């Protein structure tokens, strides 16, 4: 496939969030686009097997937990009745609806964006060979190329594991049967979201952490979340090494430094690696890091002029909104623009309950960058919204630069903390001080008011204030 007109031609390997954002921008700027997708369905990870189904699964689990345990004496607790098959069917139907609305229908509306099914390999920096489902090879030549191939779960090299029917997050989200006891290897984002969801839906759950929960975050986050997990009956084993995994008679047996553990299902959630090994990148001269992630600059361009990368296959934070932003900027830059991706203020949310929401620098990170810091931690027991919700598990932590009093970072553990963190992100982006935040008007009886209250604690004892924190 080649383009003989004067219209620039962009080839994009992949069809997920980064790929579609780039395709739409490039097409808006006058380019014809060929999307090359190896899978039978388009849309990539997020809509099909990632963000969308997982958040539905988590929401169902939260509603089940509210039936089982709620703080209102007037509303008797009851064990929820769960129709597992219907839960999975409803979840899948919504996935299909969103894939149609956000990908398939949009593709149909753009006559200059073509979909080619197959797996691409570089021949040189302007040419790809695509192996189609029939086994035929098709040549695609392009003025510019974007690599947006995403990532794949990384499976640790544990003796015996590969021979067992373990789950990754995909199998966990679309399981046909609910396990009685789920063992989870991993202690970061996806592992913890699914561990809590399965527990709330009625499974026994054991989490095996190589270090501790959320070991890469501010330590207080992992410690507080571990307490919540324990209260919900989730067993968390820290500093665990696993030497062998076996499966027989529908049971997994794990040999660990904490002894032998058994369960009827095993979820392995220990991170992801870039889908780049099959691309023959060396033919185009594209450079990757040791883990196979494609190195890009702020314009999303690789070391080879005219070849770009975005999303989880690049050396970027693995968030879908980062992927979409990177793809959008790549689409502009591939068609003559000059825009950059600024990741200095990047909020992140882990959808446990309470949610873990962070932005900017932790105290340790700030000190490592040379800041002389000061910080405050505000318990949700001092937040009116949390009090009236009878849900005071969690806190807000703000970190400031002592010299300027500018807000450097926020770490939040709170119900709907993800709805709070963007206000902190805007404050950091606009170089606001904690005093600026303390003086802002925040609507009363909202969780976001916790930011104001925490900012006020740098100067006063908020327990002495009246209800609206004036």
Describe the structure in your own words:
With 470 residues, this protein is α/β, with parallel strands linked by helices. It has three domains: 9-153 and 273-333, FAD/NAD(P)-binding domain (3-Layer(bba) Sandwich), CATH 3.50.50.60; 161-270, FAD/NAD(P)-binding domain; 348-461, Enolase-like, domain 1, CATH 3.30.390. It contains 13 helices and 22 strands. Strands 3-2-1-7-17 form a five-stranded parallel β-sheet, covered by helices on one side. Strands 18-19-22-21-20 form a five-stranded antiparallel β-sheet, sandwiched between helices. A four-stranded parallel β-sheet has the order 11-10-9-15. A hairpin with a 2-residue loop joins strand 13 and strand 14. The longest helix is centred in the first third of the chain and has 25 residues, at 84-108.
Tell me the layout of helices and strands:
Layout: E1 9-13, H1 17-28, E2 32-37, H2 44-49, H3 51-68, H4 84-108, E3 113-117, E4 119-124, E5 127-131, E6 137-141, E7 144-147, E8 151-153, H5 169-173, E9 181-185, H6 189-200, E10 204-208, H7 219-231, E11 235-237, E12 242-248, E13 251-256, E14 259-263, E15 265-268, E16 272-274, E17 307-309, H8 320-333, E18 348-350, E19 355-360, H9 363-368, E20 373-379, H10 384-388, E21 395-401, E22 407-414, H11 421-429, H12 434-439, H13 449-456
Parallel strand pairs: 1-2, 1-7, 2-3, 7-17, 9-10, 9-15, 10-11
Antiparallel strand pairs: 4-5, 5-6, 8-16, 12-13, 13-14, 18-19, 19-22, 20-21, 21-22
Helix pairs in contact: 1-8, 3-4, 3-6
């Amino acid at each position: 496939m080649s383009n003989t007109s004067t219209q620039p031609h962009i080839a994009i390997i992949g069809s997920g969030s980064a790929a579609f954002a780039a395709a739409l921008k490039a097409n808006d700027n006058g380019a014809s686009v060929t999307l090359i997708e190896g899978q039978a369905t388009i849309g990539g990870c997020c809509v099909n097997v990632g963000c969308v189904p997982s958040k539905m699964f988590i929401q169902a689990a939260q509603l089940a937990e509210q039936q089982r345990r709620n703080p209102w004496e007037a509303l008797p607790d009851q064990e929820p009745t769960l129709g597992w098959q219907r839960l999975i069917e409803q979840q899948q139907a919504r996935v299909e609806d969103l894939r149609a609305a956000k990908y398939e229908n949009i593709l149909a509306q753009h006559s200059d964006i073509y979909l080619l099914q197959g797996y691409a390999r570089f021949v040189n920096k302007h040419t790809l060979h695509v192996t189609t489902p029939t086994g035929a090879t098709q040549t695609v030549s392009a003025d510019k190329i974007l690599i947006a191939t995403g990532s794949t779960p990384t499976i640790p090299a544990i003796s015996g594991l590969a021979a067992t029917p373990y789950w990754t997050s995909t199998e966990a989200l679309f399981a046909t049967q609910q396990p009685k006891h789920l063992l989870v290897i991993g202690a970061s984002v996806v592992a913890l979201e699914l561990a809590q969801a399965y527990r709330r839906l009625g499974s026994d759950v054991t989490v095996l952490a190589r270090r501790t929960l959320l070991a890469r975050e501010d330590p207080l986050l992992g410690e507080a979340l571990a307490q919540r997990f324990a209260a919900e009956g989730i067993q968390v084993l820290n500093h665990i090494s696993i030497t062998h995994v076996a499966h027989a008679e529908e049971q997994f047996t794990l040999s660990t430094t904490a002894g032998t553990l058994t369960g009827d299902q095993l979820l392995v959630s220990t991170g992801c690696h870039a889908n780049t090994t099959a691309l023959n990148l060396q033919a185009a001269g594209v450079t990757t890091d040791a883990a196979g992630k494609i190195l890009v600059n702020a314009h999303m361009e690789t070391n080879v002029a005219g070849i770009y990368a975005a999303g989880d296959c690049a050396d970027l934070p693995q968030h879908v909104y980062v992927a979409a932003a990177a793809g959008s900027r790549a689409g502009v830059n591939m068609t003559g623009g000059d825009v950059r991706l600024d990741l200095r203020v990047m909020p992140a949310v882990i959808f446990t309950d309470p949610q873990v929401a962070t932005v900017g620098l932790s105290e340790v990170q700030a000190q490592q960058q040379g800041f002389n810091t000061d910080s405050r931690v505000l318990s949700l027991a001092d937040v009116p919204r949390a009090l009236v919700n009878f849900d005071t598990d969690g806190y807000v932590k703000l970190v400031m630069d002592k010299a300027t009093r500018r807000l450097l970072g926020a770490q939040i553990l709170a119900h709907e903390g993800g709805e709070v963190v963007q206000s902190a992100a805007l404050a950091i982006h606009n170089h606001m001080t904690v005093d600026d935040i303390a003086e802002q008007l925040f609507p009363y009886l909202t969780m976001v008011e916790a930011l104001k209250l925490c900012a006020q604690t740098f100067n006063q004892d908020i327990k002495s204030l009246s209800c609206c924190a004036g």
